[in-house]
Amino acid sequence: MPMILDTILSSAVARRAGVPQATTLRRYEPGQPLVDAPVLLVGAGAYLGTLRSRLQDNGVHLVDDESSRDQTTRLGAVVLDLSDASCLADLDPLRTVLAPAVKRLSRNARVVVIGTDPRSLDTVTDAVTHRALEGFVRSLGKELRGGSTANLVLGRTGSSDGVGAAVEFLLSGRSAYVDGQVIRVDATPGPAPAETPSATPLAGKVAVVTGAARGIGAEIATVLARDGATVVCVDVPAAGDALARVANAVRGTALQLDVTAADAGQRIVAHAVDRHGSIDLVVHNAGITRDKLLVNMDEARWDAVLDVNLGSVLRMNEAVLADGAMGQGGRIVCVSSIAGIAGNRGQTNYGMSKAGVIGLVDALATAVRGRGITVNAVAPGFIETEMTQRVPFATREIGRRMNSLQQGGRPRDVAEAIAWLAQPGSGAVTGQVLRVCGQSLLGA
Ligand code: NAD
User: In the chain, how long is the greatest CA-to-CA distance?
Assistant: First the structure.
């Protein structure tokens, strides 16, 4: 069924069933303000000063608690810095300040709470206090309506630039389908990134995107190119025409290649370096499903899914990381799935491959940390693509509504999260899985 018909049918079904209509999400467009209504910035944490100047420099209209209570205007966001909290009583502002502010939120607003990474804290009380924030934010995400989201940023000593970058991402339209999530920020490596956002933060970078001929991959290529990167678009020879169209549209180059080929990594590196001079970002997006209950799972389905989704990623990374092909500031971003977190009936092969991707990110991030390369994954929830179009209508309808934003995400939402992880300012975020799932109930 064409996507547009599916959307109309989906709204009609929702209306008849008395399910609330989904809000049109605020999505990023170049040149748009970070937030289009005043932002309440409060708290007593370590990041408040840096955030104030950074957000003001970015044209955000900041208000304090008192003046915001007087105003009749709606708030575009609340940023609450509790990073200095050292006991549960210090978390009271969640109720005394945030609760009244939530009533004044506009549509598509943002709540961002800032804490300290419990793993960097010495006392049990400190660790408990900051771990508690996670449950608060995830619950608030489920209470907010009208396209609004709640997310948590956890910093540690030396991470103020990285915290600033994460807060900006969450305030912006780039994070439209990121809800109820936690972003951990390490100490910011190297020189401080520019604080003024650029329209082309990836200018001068060479990016490789696998599975770029359609769906999420085509959108990743489009967004990376919009943000200034030169993009090498990779897909199987059978998708050659579509691949050429995407590569032309993004003014990049096409590389017809099956990622499961033994020399796929070497060919990708050679193409990127020979044609464009470097390889700065690899997005492992190519993926397949071959669903069957385990009892009916044949060898071909099992092997194909594991090799395309996981085995090839391991092999390609070896080539990309060998002999310094990818240098300081390099980025590897994998595409996992909430099926790799929650599991999914009929997807033992797929869930296993996508969980393996999370393990890969965990282990590899640590291994290459000293080289200034970050390794992260995004885990999409229900995204409206040809892959999900193949799911039977009733199951699809449940899939797209089982999240706090009550709608499916768009390929663009996944692409925006990847493009943010690729930015120089995101160098303090590594070894993480950022879910782009509208706070799906699966695996929450
Ligand atoms: P899609 O099927 O629309 O596109 C996948 C692309 O990968 C295709 O162009 C295909 O030709 C290419 N590809 C497949 N095998 C390949 C190989 N061996 N070598 C090179 N290219 C190959 O899928 P999509 O929905 O855009 O999904 C993209 C990624 O996102 C996948 O990794 C998928 O598992 C993941 N994902 C998707 C969803 C969703 O809701 N659509 C949810 C979670 C995760």
Answer: 66
Nearest-angstrom CA–CA distance, 216 and 224:
12
Active site residue 350: yes
Separation CA 161–CA 155 (nearest Å): 10
Q: What is the pTM of this model?
A: 0.95
Predicted local distance difference test score (pLDDT) of residue 12? 59
pLDDT tens digit string along 148-163? Answer: 999 999 999 989 999 9
Helices (H), 47-98: 48-57, 65-70, 93
Alpha helices of 201-347 — where are they, by DSSP H? 215-226, 240-249, 264-276, 299-306, 312-321, 339-342
Cβ neighbours, 10 Å, residue 434: 25
C-alpha of residue 210 to centroid of ligand 1, in Å: 9
- Which atom of ligand 1 lies closest to the CA of 264? 19
Of 25, 81, 72, nearest in space to 50 by CA: 81
Q: Is the dihedral of CA 372, 200, 26, 436 positive or negative?
A: negative
**Which residues have C-beta atoms less than 6 Å from ligand 1?**
210-211, 213-217, 235-236, 239, 258-260, 285-288, 308, 335, 337, 380, 382-383, 385-388
